[in-house]
Amino acid sequence: MLSNLFRDFPAAALNAQEETFEALLAHPGIRIERIISTGQASPVDFWYCQPQDEWVLVVQGSAGLQFADEDRVRELQAGDFVNIAAQRQHRVAWTAAGETTIWLAVHYGDLTSQATDAPATPARQM
Amino acid sequence: MLSNLFRDFPAAALNAQEETFEALLAHPGIRIERIISTGQASPVDFWYCQPQDEWVLVVQGSAGLQFADEDRVRELQAGDFVNIAAQRQHRVAWTAAGETTIWLAVHYGDLTSQATDAPATPARQM
What we know:
The structure is a homodimer of 126-residue chains. Chain A has 126 residues and is mainly beta. Chain A has 1 helix and 8 strands, in the order H-E-E-E-E-E-E-E-E.
């Protein structure tokens, strides 16, 4: 049972093969997950558009978060957090190459589509 | 507007005067807060007994978390997280002296008593 954000990384994260998503808490109305990125970004022209709100924190590393309604990509460093309203289009423009970026994502609000643990997200590309 | 967990500490935290609590997100059914401890602990024989569930993460520093139904105090280091069910009695046995411990607390579930921003907690003593 995972109990520390900095330990027990999945093999795919250790090998920097792909971005990994792990549920830390799942409860009606809330899901907390650890996301580990190793240089991945959202596919070009792909936008997340989620039915629920998401509060996201960069615990370690850095990333670029882009909103469809903003011109400039936001650079997130360790400790930075952002609240992303449901349906607000956004994408991960970049994550730090050559290091491990750890995100804590808190999904809340309408989680009626939370039937499975699988995130409703495509694999991000390197 | 606070946007990074590691910056903009309240004066009381900078001066290690008292434990500080700041709401980072307040929404029906969820409240996320930053707690900064500088050696404080819960009063002796005091137990938190909250109407809502709480998922808590030590982001930096260390602390001892004690449950009334456990013999041993849990030592939490940076990255450790614990889910505390509503009504489960617990207290903060200690926080690291001489350094700054930063907690991220996610309160969820029954937040009907969330009328004010003030945490339903006593001041913890040094």
